[in-house]
Amino acid sequence: MNLIAAVDKKWGIGKDGKLLTSIPQDMKYFREMTSGQVVVMGRKTMESFPEGKPLKNRVNIVLTRNADYQKEGAVIVHTIDELKKTLHPYPDQSIFVIGGETIYRQLLELCDTAYLTKIDHVFDADAFFPDIDAMPQWQCISTSEEQTYFNLVYYFTVYQKQS
To answer: How many domains is the chain built from?
Structure first.
């Protein structure tokens, strides 16, 4: 499985249920990477989408403890075991964990590739991605050339978990 996120210098990913910033090239990268794939997210991430609707051209799977939660166009699961059974028919490389913080932390061990847009800035964040730079099993295997959006500098990076 894969993880995909945009993180700031302190691994921040969100504030008050919203992304820290919106970089058009990062949004395009996210669409290109996940279109036609399976995306796994928490309930709050699903509800943060425009009109709270599932992402188009993807299998949307929501992992939530809320037994009453329903969302048209999404598959709802309530446990990691239920998620694993639901994901079983799909190849690992077609599955992308897309947030939020709790979901990233719960599923990190099941993943082997992380596609991170690293933004060279510190935002006021209240949600964070795990600091995989501090985890010896994760290694950055590629970094793009410097990208800019107005005054923000960012890089597209790929991390691989070493076995």
So the answer is: 1
